[in-house]
Amino acid sequence: MKLFSSDTRKPVTILSAVSSILIILAASSFALAQQKVSRRFPAGKNVRFELKNVTGTITVETWQRDEIMVTALMDNRKATFNPRQTDTGLVIDIVGDNRGRGDIGDMNFKIQLPVRSSVDLETRSGQINVSNIQGDLVRAHIWTSGDIRLSGVNAARVFASNTSGDIFFDGEFAAGGTYEFKSGRGTISLQLPANCGFHLVATAPVKKISMGPFWHEGMKLMGEGRRITGDVGDGRASVTVTNYQGDIQFFRR
Amino acid sequence: MNCENYQILLSEFVDGTLTAEDCARVELHLTSCPDCTDARNDLRVVVDFCLEQRGQYDAIPNERAMWLRISNLIEAESSSPARSQTPREAGWWFRLMNRSWQLSFPQLAGLAGAIVLVVAFATAFSMYRLSSRTSPLVTGIVPGSNSASIEERYSQQQQMISYWNQRVELNKARWNPQMRETFDRNMSVIDAAVTDSMKQLHQNPHDSVSEDILNDALNDKVALLKEFSDL
Q1: B189, A245: Cβ pair inside 8 Å?
Q2: CA 20 to 30 Å from A113, out of A175, B171, B181, B193?
């Protein structure tokens, strides 16, 4: 018995051909609607990079060149961005550049910087990923929703905050450094080397603070365990972790 | 020209050093102005007397000593009535107010410096008091402060929140649905933190953890509203 007669096979072939064309057309129109812009800027070894985005993902990576490369993928062709070079680095203010333009859609950035750079990143929503930065400052702030992932970070000052979304930090705390992590709802995870030293104030009023291998009897529990304070190691770095409605977790690297 | 201008010229007129034209003009004025004529006559008498007596007066032998005597006499006369006018039974305020103040320049500068210092301290102190009173409105609730109840401080913060909320609501219609949903969802996260910590504080008003969280959450709420108010 023939499953498909030659009469029934013909319309199926035509239908599949038409749908393939439609898919290709839709994909190409979406690709045409997006705009990709890449720019390179000369930079010294110690760079300060600032980016204030509206929505979209920001990814910051390091490379071995003394220059900054900015790659922006814009949903809306009306959106503009005008990087401004300063004495110490580069400033991109998407909020300011597009004020009064209405909805500009997502703008996704990939930034490549020298290793010893300071980064100050801010967005109203979207993800922030920073890896292998070893400068003075790493600041990542999401006004509403979005995850923050900081990996291989070795900076003297680190500030990461969002309202909802996870925060992940994998790096080192420098002696005398300041480190603040704050979320409204989400999990804050800190992955640290075993020999790190810091003074901790961790507050999670609703969920759990899990100190993992960093817990010891000298630590002080306050408010029925909603806050933990104490020194780990030499206690020379200052670490503040606050999570309104989520967990705080410490892991050994 | 008026009389005042003519009287300026009288000295030169009497000395005979005026120009012929000015001299004729002054003479014409004098024929019609008795006041200026009297002034001219007085001046002429003085000048004539000086001219007549020239060389008849010798210089004073010790002019400096004589001047010192005169100045001492003047000082003694001017200070003695002031002292005699202050009754013995007068109070410190009366003495203070009737005292003649004579200050040297360094004393005056020192006094001015002291006044500036006092005013600066007073201003700084009043600014500090003012800022500590208004700080809950600006930066949130002060942990551990017992001057006002949680509700009072919360309502103060609410005034600021409602102001920024109004501004956000005005702009919200322009946002896309996704942005509206994201904003509302995140605002509810902060509101939940505020509500939870308020509940805890009602049960235990001295719970510092809840007080810190309430303070932080309210500050975050104001900051979020501010950020989205100009969207």
Answers
A1: yes
A2: A175
Q: Which residue is it, tokens 């200052």?
A: A238
Query: Which member of B176, B196, B208 has the closest CB to residue A206?
Result: B196
A144 and B176 within 8 Å at the Cβ level: the answer is no
* 3-state SS assignment for residue B223: helix
Q: Nearest CA to B186 among A125, A180, A60, A200?
A: A125
What is the maximal distance between C-alpha atoms in chain B?
Answer: 114
Note the helical H segments in B86-149.
92-98, 105-139
B149-154 contact pairs (CB < 8 A, 24+) = B150/B198, B150/B201, B150/B202, B150/B205, B150/B214, B154/B198, B154/B214, B154/B218
Query: Which residue has tokens 């010790």?
Result: B62
The backbone torsions φ and ψ at residue A121, rounded to the nearest 5 degrees and listed phi first, read -120, 140
Amino acid of residue B143? P
| pTM of the entire predicted model | 0.65
Structure tokens at B94: 């009366």
The pLDDT tens digits for B116-171 are 999 988 888 877 665 544 433 334 444 444 445 677 777 878 888 999 998 898 88
Report residue A217 CA to chain centroid gap.
34
Question: ipTM of the predicted structure?
Answer: 0.81
CB atoms closer than 10 angstroms to residue A199: 17
Return d(Cα B30, Cα B32) in angstroms, integer.
Answer: 5
Task: Report residue A22 CA to chain centroid gap.
Answer: 35
Q: Are A51 and A130 in contact (CB under 8 A)?
A: no
Distance CA A154, CA A116 (A): 10
CB A15 within 8 A of CB A56: no
Maximum separation of any 2 CA atoms in chain A, in Å: 82
In DSSP notation, B27-89 reads HHHHHH-HHHHHHHHHHHHHHHHHHHHTT-SPPPTTHHHHHHHHHHHHHHHHHHHHHHHS-TT
- The string of DSSP codes covering A13-62 is HHHHHHHHHHHHHHHHHHHHHSEEEEEEEE--SSEEEEEEEEES-EEEEE
Which among B168, B180, B182 is the top mutation candidate for probing chain A, defined by the most A β-carbons within 10 Å of its own β-carbon? B182
- Please report which residue ranges of B140-176 form alpha helices under DSSP H: 150-172
